[in-house]
Amino acid sequence: MTTLPPFAAATFAVAAITALGALGGCAGAPGREGSGPPAEAPAYRIGDRWVYHGEDGFRVKTEWDETHEITAIGADGIAAQMTLKGGVDLTRAELWSAPGQVKVGAVCDNTTRRFEVPLQRHDFPLAAGKVWNQWVWNFNELTKERGQINYFVSVNGWEKVTTPAGTFDALKMQVLMRLDDETFWRWPTTCNYQVWYAPAAKAVVREERAAQYVEKGSRNAAGAATIRTQFGVVELVSFTPGR
User: Strand pairing partners for 169?
Assistant: First the structure.
């Protein structure tokens, strides 16, 4: 597996920070980071239901609504269904071995992956200053290929964040991902997300997304190009507890 070269990593870091800064300037205004108690793992119930609104793009935006619902809880884990309608129209399923631990699910896009060990999406309990870094093998159901993803999370601190569903006390996290989609002409996709997790909603209530890849340069060309693949926001619209 080829290592992402320094120039590509540096290019992504600068572009992602710039993109997220611009995105934050035009979106809702979370409060200042602060301290607070750890967020324990949520107790899910069948029927827990979250509705989100998402948009992605630069000049012309794609908008959609998505519904996440807990459909089963058993010995195999926690089953959830995600239904997206609008500019993105699809249904997919996830399976979590425990809250925040993904056996089957998606990262960065809506492609379903089966992880050889659970992906630590949220390593509960969450607390300011906590960091985890995971390299995890997976099988991509779209490409039918096996690959390794790097998933890095840093928990920054508590903020108040306002969404269409209301104002929440939330833990802000930075999520950095390196996917397994490198080819002979491009380096892997890298993602830089800002995520707000609210215990009161038992879920992420806001997510700011930036992702891109860098083309492999040629001595006979002008050089490598950076292709942005995500620049969007997903916000919680409503949360309905199950019974």
Answer: 160
Residue 10 in 3-state DSSP? helix
Note whether 64 and 7 are within 8 A (CB). Answer: no
* Three-class DSSP category at 16: helix
**Residue type (1 letter), 226:** T
- Domains identified in the chain and CATH numbers: 6-240 (2.40.360)
Spell out the per-residue pLDDT of the chain, length 243, in tens: 444 443 344 344 434 444 444 444 344 445 446 678 999 999 999 999 999 999 999 889 999 999 999 999 999 999 999 999 999 999 999 999 999 999 999 999 999 999 999 999 999 999 999 999 999 999 999 999 999 999 999 999 999 999 999 999 999 999 999 999 999 999 999 999 999 999 999 999 999 999 999 999 755 555 679 999 999 999 999 999 998
The pTM (predicted TM-score) of the whole model is 0.85
Residue 25 token pair: 């300037």
To which residue do tokens 């807990």 refer?
A: 70
Cα angle 59, 60, 66 (rounded to 5 degrees) comes to 125
